[in-house]
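ok posting inputs for the iron/sulfur cluster job
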Amino acid sequence: MNLQQLGQVRHDWETAEVQALFDMPFNDLLFHAQTVHRQNFDPNEVQVSTLLSIKTGACPEDCKYCPQSGHYTTDLDKEKLMKVEKVLEQARKAKEIGSTRFCMGAAWRSPTKKDMPYVIQMIQGVKEMGMETCMTLGMLDEDQSQELAEAGLDYYNHNLDTSPEFYGNIITTRTYADRLNTIDNVRKAGMKVCSGGILGMGETELDRAGMLIQLANMPQQPESVPINMLVRVEGTPFAENEELDPIDFIRTIAVARIMMPESHVRLSAGREEMTDEMQALAFFAGANSIFYGEKLLTTANPRAENDQKLFERLGINPERRCEKHSEEAQEAALMNAVESQQQDKMFYDASV
Ligand code: SF4
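and the output
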């Protein structure tokens, strides 16, 4: 590829040049990714979000990686839609421990008419606390997208998961086009897009390239790009999948950083299984967003204490996006995180 173009936001990525990025010697790739990262971000800042499952399990979709799918038998405790006040209580706690964005996820094919008023109250309540809001509720039509945007929703998460070619091996109950359509509706309604995928599902490097091309070549690149590492949950069809090579994971982060220079690249599911060294390398490769808190939807997430220690060891500061949250307050909040997390075992109580 033409290295002169490094760091430019482009929407015309082709397979051969993305493949060339994947084929680069690891150190060269990381050097370029870090260079691009520094052109757009403070390299020592990581954005911190908290994710709460507001409705857990019994999902009608058949995503083969997902313990929330009603198609598979897993140990997951199913929960109905959480009460609004309970969600807001968790959002307050997330703010106290330094999160600037509160993400709420529901295991739905798409929200029903009956659910929307509750979801809207949740958005409005979290916004009033001065936090950014994000939701992942499944597919959205134009009207639903508009309603959520009007309620104040900042981000909508809807992952592409993988390449269009590999997609049929993972999900049969919704199409790739359905996914792109939802993302399109979200954009039209004026919300920011959070969209990425999962590595370790049996896809090839070409599939990883294909997924990143889909994301980067959107008319507007997603503001947030979660790169997940498959969590092999017992009972799901992917439980026995081969372990992902950590170097391949880091390589994909670096390629994502180069292709989407202005997006936040997020370490999401699978972080629990990553060593500190692997996370450090991921930050060097251009990842600059994590989920913070005890659980990431339904799989374990490294405890706040570990995150806090790792940030300190690496000299990383949480990105300050929330105007109402002063630097000192945020620092103090993070320092207190260990204590508050230890005292409060209720952080991820998804009871109704
Ligand atoms: S990934 Fe989402 S849509 Fe797919 S089964 Fe899980 S909760 Fe449902």
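notes: The chain has one domain: 12-342. The first helix runs from residue 15 to 23.
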